[in-house]
Structure to design on (486 residues):
């Protein structure tokens, strides 16, 4: 094999590969015979070296000139945007989402760095009048220190960007662990950050397994905070370790996002939003629509159009311009999706689109969108996050029943409603327990400059993105001073 072996990035350089070091092959999920890249696997020792480098670098980066941080972040963002076609193609090949979606994700990553380039120049302290004469009070926001960044595979450049950019913006150093399934986008991002001139140790990237790299980051006394996006199960483990160490933790976990469709909804829009939310990105989004709750007056017409439009979706190579849905990310995810078809049928749900015998996956992990009806609230396909293009459609009598069904979940990330009624729209926005509420919009579309996050089992800790990110990436110090000393 003549493939160039790539490595992790530690203390200002891509590390030297050792003889006999374990390797990771990055396989194209659309063509499993294609190896995109080969990486040397990081271990505990290398992770400890990266943490030490970040720990040493935090001393100067924390007090660095904000203009220098701004210039660095802006340079990174510009480079990402200038190379979004190439980066998008790479992302589509390794993760499986369509090229259009992949380029959109890269664009968002670039704009996140640009946003925090500006944010670095904003004053984030406050001055108060004391209740005591002759005393001044300053509330100062300072960086937390070394931040462990642990990211999932479904957004391999956007999610790292919305964690790394604010961490650097507010003066923190970073030890970044991307998912092993998608190392190429992470490596490309690390290369851009390196070439932009990041000081040694300020940013580090480790490609390796969670049981070595992730655990070492979580348990190191030199790591001051951890931000994690992934499954609820792993998130709970991360929270347990962080709580034992008494360090800040930020968790973004699962979703079981509902979309309510009322009788007065624009049916074409409702169908479009359902398909976009449930099936684009192959359903592999924490904000994906997984439950559509439809009132009985519009139910039959909605379901007919939903099935017809879903049948028209083209499944294929994500790099082809007319492809609507690419493959799922790997064999494990494909097996999980197939398992949930069996579970739904065994529980008594009715399969109205998608067949139990999915197409041959020997050339790629392709999966046809699935629509279930006659789904009840106790079924696993109603309650559990599947993370694939499997949609449950539930018929209800009226808005109030729809609302109660939408709330019946351990998760609370995103929730939507399709209606022409200002009354119901306002009521849903007010009463929904989700962290993000959409009216006549897909549950999966979010902006980069406003808070992102959910409630219940979906999220824990301060929100991500926008100016709210400073709540996690900074700590507050209250400084008192006697104004006049004689």
């Amino acid at each position: 094999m003549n493939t160039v072996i790539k490595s992790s990035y530690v203390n200002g350089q891509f590390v030297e590969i050792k003889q006999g070091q374990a390797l990771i092959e990055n396989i194209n999920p659309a063509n499993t015979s294609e190896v995109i890249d080969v990486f040397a696997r990081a271990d505990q020792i290398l992770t400890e070296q990266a943490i030490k480098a970040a720990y040493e670098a935090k001393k100067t980066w924390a007090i660095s000139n904000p203009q220098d941080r701004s210039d660095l972040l802006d340079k990174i963002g510009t480079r990402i945007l200038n190379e979004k076609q190439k980066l998008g193609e790479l992302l589509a090949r390794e993760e499986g989402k369509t090229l259009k979606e992949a380029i959109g994700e890269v664009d968002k990553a670039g704009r996140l760095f640009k946003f925090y380039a500006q944010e670095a120049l904003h004053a984030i302290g406050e001055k108060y009048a004391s209740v005591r004469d002759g005393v001044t009070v300053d509330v100062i926001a300072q960086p937390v220190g070394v931040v462990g960044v642990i990211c999932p595979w479904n957004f391999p450049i956007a999610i790292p960007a919305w964690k790394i950019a604010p961490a650097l913006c507010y003066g923190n150093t970073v030890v970044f662990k991307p998912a092993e399934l998608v190392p190429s986008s992470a490596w490309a991002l690390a290369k851009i950050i390196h070439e932009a001139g990041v000081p040694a140790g300020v940013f580090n990237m480790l490609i390796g397994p969670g049981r070595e790299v992730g655990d070492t980051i979580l348990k190191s006394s030199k790591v001051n905070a951890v931000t994690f996006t992934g499954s609820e199960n792993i998130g709970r483990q991360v929270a347990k370790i962080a709580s034992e160490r008494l360090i800040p933790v930020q968790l973004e976990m699962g979703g079981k996002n509902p979309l309510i469709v009322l009788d007065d909804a624009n049916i074409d829009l409702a169908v479009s939003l359902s398909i976009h939310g449930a099936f684009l990105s192959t359903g592999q989004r924490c904000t994906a629509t997984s439950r559509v709750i439809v009132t009985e007056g519009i139910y039959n017409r909605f379901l007919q159009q939903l099935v017809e439009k879903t049948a028209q979706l083209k499944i294929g190579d994500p790099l082809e311009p007319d492809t609507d849905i690419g493959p799922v990310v790997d064999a494990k995810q494909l097996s999980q999706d197939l398992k949930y078809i069996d579970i739904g049928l065994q529980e008594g749900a009715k399969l109205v689109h998608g067949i139990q015998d999915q197409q041959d996956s020997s050339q790629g992990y392709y999966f046809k969108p699935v629509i279930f009806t006659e789904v009840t609230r106790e079924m696993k396909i109603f309650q559990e996050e599947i993370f694939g293009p499997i949609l449950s459609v539930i018929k209800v009598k009226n808005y109030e029943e729809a609302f109660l069904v939408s709330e019946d979940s351990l998760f609370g990330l995103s929730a939507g409603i399709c209606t022409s009624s200002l009354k119901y729209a306002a009521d849903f926005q007010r009463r929904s327990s989700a962290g993000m509420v959409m009216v006549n919009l897909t549950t999966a579309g979010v902006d980069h400059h406003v808070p992102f996050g959910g409630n219940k089992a979906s999220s824990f800790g301060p929100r991500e993105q926008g100016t709210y990110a400073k709540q996690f990436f900074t700590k507050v110090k209250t400084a008192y001073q006697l104004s006049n000393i004689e």
Observations:
- The first strand starts at residue 5 and ends at 6.
- The chain has 15 helices and 23 strands.
